[in-house]
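Hi D.,

Good news: the full-assembly prediction came through. Inputs first.
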Amino acid sequence: MDEFERELRQAFARQPAPPGLKNRIMQRRRTASSRRSFPFFAWNGLAASFVSVSLCILAALAIYGGYEQRQAEQRRKAEDVRQQVLIALRITNRALNHMNHQLAAHGRARQESGDN
Amino acid sequence: MARDWQPDFEQLVDNHQSMVFSLALRMTGDRGLAEEIAQDVFLELDRHLGKIESAAHACFWLRRVAISRSADALRRRRVRGIGLWVELEEHHGLQLEPRTSPLGGRLEGLLAMLPEPQRAALILRYQEDLTPEEIAASLDAPVATVKSNLQRGLKLLRAKAATHLKEFVREKEYARGV
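Then the structure:
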């Protein structure tokens, strides 16, 4: 080993750790171990349950929304049909009235020609 | 297999915090980052404590992981485009321990200019006083590669130090002249 290497060894002596490093490590260790005491799988299970429940609620809302939409559509169609039936009845009524008037007029005309 | 050695985490931190911190500091050149790495390394040791078989194994494991995590941190910093040592040198100046010789104080700065594998080999050689075989085991590299890195690193460092020493002498002479 030459002078330079000796110099190198001296320059590269271990540096003291910053004050409080050990305490910070122990603190982080305590935090990590308390996190570990509530196991990963428990967190995982909770998260999975939460996601499942959320998905169920979303699916129920979607189904209910779809059902409501279909009901409204059916109600609208039924109303259209009702309006069409009413119009048809009105037309029929008018036609029957017309026929009635014509028959009455025809009856009166025959009566008058018989009297004469 | 039964083990006689019972690991005491707190004791391990006490015994090796200076080593782990110094390795990380010399690899990265950043005290904050080195402390962060040291904390992470010890927490990783805590998780792997069941696999540690002896005090020597713990020391070997810590050296290996400290160098590896420091290299990872440097890689991450490089990806983000930050040249740590260059930044420290240019803007803040290296806050190193006072040295007895003019060269001593600058050797760590010069070390930073070496390629990473050479730097790691030199740190383990001169800080930890390991043999090339032990360094090879720590770095998981062939002994021949480690020897070559040591030789090249030393040569490069010697050349840089010679240049630096000349500049230092010139500055001293200039200061005396003024």
